[in-house]
Amino acid sequence: MIAKETVISHKWQKRFIDLARFWAQFMTCDRAHVGAVIVRDKRVIASGYGGAPSGSHTCDQVGHAIFKGHCVRTVHAEMNAIAQAARFGPSVDGCDIYCTLMPCWNCAKMISAVGIARVYYEDVYHPEEWDFYKPLYENLKTLFIRLESPPETTGAAK
Ligand SMILES: [Zn+2]
Ligand SMILES: [Zn+2]
Fold this sequence. Notes:
Elements: H1 10-24, E1 35-40, E2 43-49, H2 59-62, E3 66-67, E4 70-71, H3 77-88, E5 96-101, H4 105-113, E6 118-123, H5 130-139, E7 143-146
Parallel strand pairs: 5-6, 6-7
Antiparallel strand pairs: 1-2, 1-5, 3-4
The chain binds zinc ion (2 copies).
One zinc ion (ZN) binds near residues 76, 78, 104 and 107.
């Protein structure tokens, strides 16, 4: 069971998931559009979207690289946000991450390994596989919190 007492206000959740959605539109693999922002003390310290490693070919340029049913060309949004922090310096230990899609298991492990405390996400990743993965996610120290009713993307913040 996820502890809810650490959940920040709806107003701030809306701001950060809006930013994650903003970055999602730039994803260079059109099989998904996913964005992520890493937040400390209500400040964004890194952000990312799904795409090929900087300087290499993108799916938009040369097509997908499909292996076993997945496009393997892209660095996922969450990984790119962590990579940005690694590249430019801020520690992500104890931070929150906002994701437009629930992190896949590889990203979830990395998010936990770098010390990110909480994940706020909108949509479930491959719900048909959830029976298998649920105990693995629940065993991580990181909390995964679904934004049950996604905040409006427009209108005045409350
Ligand atoms: Zn692709
Ligand atoms: Zn992932």
